[in-house]
Structure formats: structure tokens, C-alpha cells
Design goal:
- By secondary structure, this protein is α/β, with parallel strands linked by helices.
- 44% of the residues lie in helices and 17% in strands.
- Strands 9-8-7-6-10-11-12 form a seven-stranded mixed β-sheet, sandwiched between helices. A five-stranded mixed β-sheet has the order 1-2-4-3-5.
- Helix 1 crosses helix 14.
- It is globular and about 55 Å long.
- The termini are far apart.
- The relative contact order is 0.14.
Length: 420
């Protein structure tokens, strides 16, 4: 019987590898192997047809050693405790690698928002927020958008929490609408961070940015913004995909037209999009295309032991969380494939979430130019630090990122000591 994939095992494996290189004992890292808090909730909702349906939800805090827990809320049918646990841990190390004062948390609701009305999504959001309210807050745990959620959902979360507390609390979530204290540039932040990281790795490998061929799996917020920004930088996006499948054009796709089509209606999918010269491909075929850069921007475990040896791209930039499984990492390393890890590549979102939180606390507003410049000033040095330690220790960029992140988390834990 095939072993079931557990993303949290991936986290523990890479943390252990980093700890061994750093010379930590089992006692040094024992506490960070376990999430601090896990909450599972039932969410009864009156559906549009008058029936009551109970949805399952989670909020998990992996670590608050370096600051409040930080992490998104995912609305997706595949949400489960192991996935949320892993995503929370990745957030801990993502915040640490870019050195912002947060720990890691994550939440999710088992549902398919594409089959729900706006009224039903709002009802799920409000009841879920009420259920996790004891755990969240500007100084405790700050949710943000993730797969299946957006600024509107964050606005409803902020309103619900504020109603429960009796006064307006902007800083309880990030990724909010601008009118509710959201940060300019937040919507594009994760994709912009992926763009900065892609340019950084191409420069290190002496590859030209102009004309570089790119395939992007996933056209949600992160994938679509990444496609837009890489296209603007002169890269040739030859393939993109969503849940309905992918499209390919060796001469480069019309990215502005694709983005306009997808933005027109949230139910629009690539299976119904057409342009001259394109062919239809599957998500699996997209991953195996002969391109210079592959950007997995969908869900975890997309590149695994069964397809890693078929990956032709020499560079993979992880825009999604955990898209490359640990057994695939080993295969790709032997092939010489360079993988820029998720905790570095897609950290732009949490960095600008941090900026939003700071602005909320101080009751100030930054310009979009200032946000983007400050993001670059964090992403670029973080990339350099990971690159340098990976070269110094002769390890992969993933291990390099975890060497920095694990040390920061363990040092914070040690400085605080174990209570009581």
C-alpha cells in the first residue's frame, strides 16, 4: 500500500537536516517539532436553499516564539489538519528567513468556494471568525488571505471580530480592502516577491531575464500576478494552468488578455479561453515542459517522487507552499536542478502583511511605491543571505533557507527559555 503523503513530515525532515548541520541537539529543536495550539471548529451555515450545512474549520498556531502567529485562511475542499499544520510551520520559518517579528499560524475551512454564493461564503467567514476569535487578535494571531479567500473575506473577518469586541480593530487581519486599512501593494506582494526572487536567481546563474521561458502552474492570485510581473520584465510565459487544465504557446502567451479574461468573472476558467497558436495541456504536462523556469503556484506536493525525474526546467521557483515533496528534492538535486524554496520565494505576501499590520498599529498609510521599495529591501538581502550560506555549506537553497530560519527560531526559543 502506497504511503499517504503528509506535508508535515516534509517540514520535520528539512528542519532536522538543518538542525544537524547547525549542530543542535534533539532537545534544542524538540519544542519546534510540535504546534503550540490546534483548534478544530464546526461551522453551521444556513445555505441559500434553506438547508443547514456544517463545515469543518481549523486554526493552528505552530510557533509564537518570535512574535504573534501569522498566516492565511484557506477555503478549499482538500483542507485537513495535516495540511494546515504544515502550512503553519512553513509560516514560522518563512517569517524567520526574512526576519520579520512573527511566528507561524494557518487556518482553513473545508469547502469549495467556486460552488458557493457570496452570501454563503460570507456566512462561513463570519461563523468561522467567531469560532476562532479566542485565538486571534493583533497581538496574538493575525490571519490573511490564502487559497480560496481574498480581500473581501478579510474585510468580513475584520468586521466580525470588531463586532465581537465592540470597537473597530483593523490589525486583526491583513490583506484587507484598502478602505478598511489594507496596504497598497498587498494584493500583488506575493507575486512581486516571486518576481524579485526569479530575477535574483537568474542573475546568480548568469541567465538573461529578457526572453527567459517560463511555465506557471496555477493562476490564482499568486500565479496570475507572477505571470503579469514576469511578463512585464520581458520573460516569455509559454504556459499557464488552473484547476481546469493548461494552455501552451511556444512563442509566448498573451498574458494581459488571459488576465483580463480571468478577472472578468471569478468562474471563468482557462478551459474556455482561446487565443491563436495555443494548445491545451494538462497540469501534469505543464510541469514537464522544456522551459528555463518552472513556477509551481498551485497546491503542495505537485512535484513528487513519481514525476521529479521528468522535470526538465533547470530552475524551479516555489510560488506555492510545499509544491516540491522531499523525495522529489533529492531527485532534483542529483539532476542539478536549482530549487528556490517557498519560505523564501513566496515570502513577499507576509512581508507586506507585516507592513500593513505596522501601518494599522501606528495609524499611518504608506504609498504603494514605498511598500514595493521596502519589500525589495527585505527580499533581496534575504535571497543573498540564503544563497551565501548555501554556497558556504555546499547545500541546496532550501537547506540554506532553513539553516537561517531554524537558527532564528531556536535562538528566540532559547532566549525566552521554557516556561515555567
Amino acid at each position: 500500500m502506497e504511503k499517504q503523503y503528509n506535508p508535515y513530515d516534509n517540514v520535520l525532515k528539512v528542519v532536522q537536516e538543518a538542525a544537524d548541520i547547525l549542530g543542535y541537539s534533539d532537545s534544542d529543536i524538540e519544542a519546534i517539532k510540535y504546534p503550540e495550539r490546534e483548534l478544530k471548529v464546526s461551522i453551521p451555515v444556513r445555505m441559500d436553499d434553506g438547508t443547514t450545512h456544517v463545515f469543518e474549520g481549523y486554526r493552528i498556531q505552530h510557533s509564537t516564539s518570535r512574535g504573534p502567529a501569522k498566516g492565511g485562511i484557506r477555503f478549499h475542499p482538500a483542507v485537513n489538519a495535516d495540511e494546515v499544520r504544515a502550512l503553519a510551520a512553513w509560516m514560522t520559518f518563512k517569517c524567520a528567513v526574512v526576519n520579520i517579528p512573527y511566528g507561524g499560524g494557518k487556518g482553513g475551512v473545508v469547502c469549495d468556494p467556486t460552488h458557493l454564493s457570496e452570501n454563503e461564503i460570507r456566512a462561513i467567514t463570519r461563523r468561522f471568525t467567531a469560532a476562532i476569535a479566542p485565538l486571534i487578535g493583533p497581538e496574538q494571531d493575525i490571519p490573511a488571505p490564502d487559497v480560496g479567500t481574498n480581500a473581501a473575506v478579510m474585510g468580513w473577518m475584520m468586521d466580525t471580530y470588531s463586532m465581537l469586541k465592540g470597537h473597530c480593530i483593523h490589525g486583526v487581519v491583513t490583506g484587507k480592502p484598502i478602505e478598511l486599512g489594507g496596504a497598497l501593494g498587498r494584493n500583488e506582494a506575493t507575486g512581486r516577491g516571486v518576481m524579485f526572487t526569479t530575477k535574483n536567481i537568474l542573475h546568480k546563474l548568469n541567465m538573461n531575464v529578457e526572453g527567459t521561458t517560463v511555465a506557471i502552474q496555477g493562476m490564482g492570485n499568486v500565479g496570475s500576478i507572477t505571470a503579469k510581473l514576469l511578463h512585464q520584465e520581458g520573460m516569455k510565459i509559454v504556459a499557464v494552468s488552473d484547476v481546469s487544465g493548461g494552455i501552451y504557446n511556444a512563442n509566448g502567451l498573451d498574458i494581459p488578455a488571459i488576465l483580463a479574461y480571468l478577472a472578468k468573472d471569478r468562474k471563468n476558467l482557462l478551459k474556455d479561453y482561446n487565443e491563436d497558436g495555443m494548445t491545451r495541456i494538462s497540469n501534469e504536462e505543464l510541469l514537464e515542459l522544456d522551459v528555463q523556469v518552472l513556477v509551481p503556484a498551485a497546491l503542495e506536493n505537485q512535484i513528487n517522487g513519481t514525476n521529479a525525474d521528468k522535470i526538465k526546467a533547470p530552475v524551479i521557483v516555489e510560488a506555492a507552499n510545499g509544491p516540491v515533496a522531499s523525495e522529489a528534492d533529492e531527485i532534483l538535486e542529483k539532476k542539478g536542478t536549482v530549487v528556490v524554496p517557498d519560505i523564501l520565494a513566496n515570502a513577499g505576501g507576509v512581508v507586506v502583511s507585516y507592513f500593513e499590520w505596522v501601518q494599522n498599529i501606528q495609524s499611518v498609510s504608506w504609498t504603494e511605491e514605498a511598500v514595493n521599495q521596502n519589500l525589495k529591501e527585505i527580499m533581496d538581502p534575504s535571497f543573498e543571505a540564503v544563497w551565501d550560506i548555501a554556497k558556504e555549506k555546499n547545500v541546496t537553497l532550501r537547506t540554506g533557507a532553513y539553516l537561517i530560519a531554524v537558527k532564528r527560531v531556536v535562538d528566540a526559543k532559547a532566549a525566552r527559555a521554557i516556561w515555567p
